[in-house]
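Researcher: Please predict.
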Amino acid sequence: MHNDLFDSECVAHDVHASSKKQLLQAMSQLACKCAYVTQADISVRDILSAVLERERLGTTGIGNGVAIPHARIPGLKQMSAAFARLDSPIEYDAVDDRPIDLVVMLLAPENAGAEHLRALAQVSRLLRREETRNQLRAAPNAEAIYTMLNEKQVVSAA
């Protein structure tokens, strides 16, 4: 996985959403601040539409309070990810039926095959660790979360 998957502009904490759709809208807006997305001039509507379409195939709530909504985005040149910690957990139709409060939106170029799956697997592995989830939930601000995500990525990429 690229060490620049997470961009400091695309990490947020204490995000408020009262529904899954509202959350996906907020995450699409956050993803539009990511460097690769900005460079490709991709709109919030493009991202939201692709993510909602993917969500119709099955939930991206992987359990333990974590969701990884993802989609392939035409025009995107590089994998990109946005991270948010919610101010309070929301219902998400997760596989364990528990509400979620940690979200990674993963966006892939339209023709990304294995790279997309590798990034998805790595983010999933990272967030499956209870210690990591607890650290992300306890982080004081977005900057601390960004630093943590990049440190964890480097460690887990080794």
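Model: Residues 142-157 form the longest helix (16 residues).
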